[in-house]
């Protein structure tokens, strides 16, 4: 319908009837279609003016037919119209954005990450997951330094990256290393800076950082290196010092806003947080430690203040070795799963339900307790059988535990959508067993950072076996599969890096470590959007661009579907809309109208 069908910025019923009748008369559409369009028009009249219209785009809706449309309109936080013509009522308050042919995808859903940890980092945590050279690090840190309140403020990067992708020579993927002391000083001459990989390092600091850390008992190499290790390392000592001196409620809230801004830059609009290792407030704490009982407070405060810009779902992590799992029991008695609003709500128990995954651990009993309470259990698997006769891998025991819980409460696994995440070493036999009880798998591309193909003597890949698992999901009654980051320690949050790994099998050094397991870009994006909506039990509201669903979308800086493989890592949002609100705007599109 053309623009001249509008009167005073509003459709009239007569305009629509005239057009529908003309179309029907021309034999283009039948009466059933005309009737449906009349209903659509009634609905539009009832809703009044659209709040926002995006047009002239390549909008991948990720609906059941993988439809690609050119325009969407949004009203009251939901998609009002998804199609090729902006028939929606435009009023004086309707904002219209010309996408100029850009690719748009649904807001990315990360069904397994640790954004709550990222929002509780000490110092001005500055993600390096998007750096692809030493020069990138210098640029990112220099830009951050320019925003700092004073010379004492720390720039920190706690996990989520690896020196493997900090290329000394941008054209040589094997040249990755930490920046030297001099290189860091050149980027950040005045403020202290500290970066560490993974849970416990190693790390690197600059001259300003080295002098502060040394003064507080941390051994720093003359080259600025900070040793990593377990259970106590120079990195974990540095981390404890930074936490104890820098963190306070206001700083945590600022850190939450920073974490949300980073998520919007990489297009992740909904996060299912999987908790932390319980902090001991000693130097044995690594990057993944926090207080599971208080770490959500700064996030909830940001939601209360109306400053939140993305959706958060919260799992509760329990890792007790006590066979009676008293804390888990209290959680199940005193908390509720899946309660909250569209912006923030609770999830299930995960990514741990007990300490250990073996006959000596309370895993099986904990699974039964979660089942009896009617909750969902989510666990992770990092193992594989090294030889056919070696000890069972963790996923084997976990699936047996799920089977035991399902025996106790028949149907609970399927009904509550229990999940095992990561599964680098899972086999077809065990996928089939999990499928039989309705269990599901969340896949992660974390091996991209530091994975290698020799991790196993049996399977010649680093995993997870994306191809085998997605093929399994396509069978009748197949398992459900999602894709997740497991950021922020051992993996980046950036979903495009995970999609790079899932579709190429290449690690950060450009080595093919996951051969014959690649999935297509369409499949990878589907896992990260539509399928993950299902994992959140919110498939009616999230995961695709369809009329009536929550209006979350990302306008990309390049076309995900056609760019060369390496450029996948450089995909960013230029505009992120969450609940119909522009939450991130890189200033590329004209959004003044
Ligand atoms: Zn995790």
The proportion of residues in beta strands is: 15-25%
Question: Mean pLDDT across all residues, rounded?
Answer: 92
Q: Enumerate the strands of the largest sheet in spatial order, edge to edge or round the barrel.
A: 5-4-9-25-26-27
Shape: globular
- Give the class from helix and strand content and strand pairing: alpha/beta
Instruction: Give the ligands present.
Output: zinc ion
Low-pLDDT parts are 1-29
For the secondary structure, the number of strands is 27
Helical content stands at 25-40%
Q: What is the tally of helical segments?
A: 19
What is the C-alpha radius of gyration, as a whole number of Å? 25 Å
The rounded distance between the terminal residues' Cα atoms is: 21 Å
Main β-sheet description:
6 strands, mixed
Explain how this protein is built.
It is a single chain. The chain has 593 residues and is an alpha/beta fold. It is built from 19 helices and 27 strands. The strands form 7 sheets. Strands 5-4-9-25-26-27 form a 6-stranded mixed β-sheet, with helices on one face. A 5-stranded mixed β-sheet has the order 11-12-13-14-15. It has a 4-stranded mixed β-sheet with strand order 7-6-3-8, with no helix packed on it. α4 crosses α5 (181-187) and α11 (363-372) runs parallel beside α12. The longest helix has 17 residues, at 31-47. The chain is globular. 52% of the residues are buried. Residues 1-29 have low confidence and may be disordered. It binds zinc ion. Zinc ion (ZN) binds at residues 112, 114, 274, 351, 380, 486.
